[in-house]
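Worked example

This section walks through a single chain of length 396. The input is the sequence exactly as stored; nothing has been trimmed or padded.
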Amino acid sequence: MSSVEAPSTTESFRTGFRSWLRANLTGEFASLRGRGGPGREHEAFAQRLAWERHMAAAGWTCVGWPVEYGGRGATLSQQVAYHEEYALADAPARVNHIGEQLLGPTLIAFGTPEQRARFLPPIVAVEELWCQGYSEPDAGSDLANVRTRAVREEASGDWIVDGQKIWTSLAHESQWCFVVARTEAGSVRHRGLSYLLVPLDQDGVDIRPIVQLTGTSEFNEVFFDGARTRGAHLVGAPGDGWQVAMATLGFERGVSTLGQQVGFRRELETLIALARRNGTADDPLIRDRLARAWIGLETIRFNALRMLDGVAAGAPGPEASIGKIFWATWHRDLGELAMDICGAGGMLAAGEPYDLDDWQRLFLFSRADTLYAGSNEIQRNIIAERVLGLPKEARG
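Given that input, the structure is written out below as tokens.
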């Protein structure tokens, strides 16, 4: 991977963060190892929030942001090292991911000086949590079909927001939501959309948790009924929402994916150990599937490194589009493989009312991997039309 700094600089950064994690994931925070994550966001949320504020006090949040915005100005390879070390330490799932990895970089790129001064410091300090208001009942993977609308009130200059968002991760724990809304009457598809920062603690917002297959509720429906936000909370110009929203999605598939893959590797290694203990590793079909899973994970990692190499050179390639469909399918298949290795016992909950073990939770939640953040079908269209230049799919 291309890098602007000598390897020793990145290694020193890696060693420093690793040492800090060893010294601080102790005492009151020791029990947080491995807590949280997809399907488990309800676990020890208050304690994980306290942990992340502890990280902030030591300057270990938003490390990739420029120093002038509260970050460390870490290079791309240093950010990769940061996420890998965090995952290798089995540190708890982050609660501020959306603010730190999505909104923050978006405001740095598109926000006004006033917006950066208002919103970036509370993200660095983990004092305000954010959620993402993109998907709607009729605009999930087809984001351009947004119907939530916002109208500028002449007297106050405020935006009045009406509509519904769905599958909004951690909205029930968040204070703010960045919302893609239609601000131009009569506009269709990508045109006439705007990107608004909307406070959630107000009478015009109703947040309703969605119970998932895992029995937990980290996704939500969010209803806006006359919700208000200040005119100054528009990111970019009116009608530029699609451009800003797509930039946010680009940040979403950045360096943190390398840390995600460390977690995937831990799951695979633990599953291999289980197969050896219960004898299923002696089945040639199971052995073949485990081998394919290992090969697939290596492919995902090298594709991610190739993507970051392009980012470092200033010209991201098609790897970002390929990466999501690849890891999502791989992880879903790993959940199915886990159930086959667990055997008949995997069909039984450990206790009442719905006490799932890690493999059952993996299987159930990973069914969503190929749906959220752009379904496999939509990802294939993106690859075909935007990467390969094939004719666009006929649309009514």
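What to look for: DSSP finds eleven helices and eight strands in the chain.
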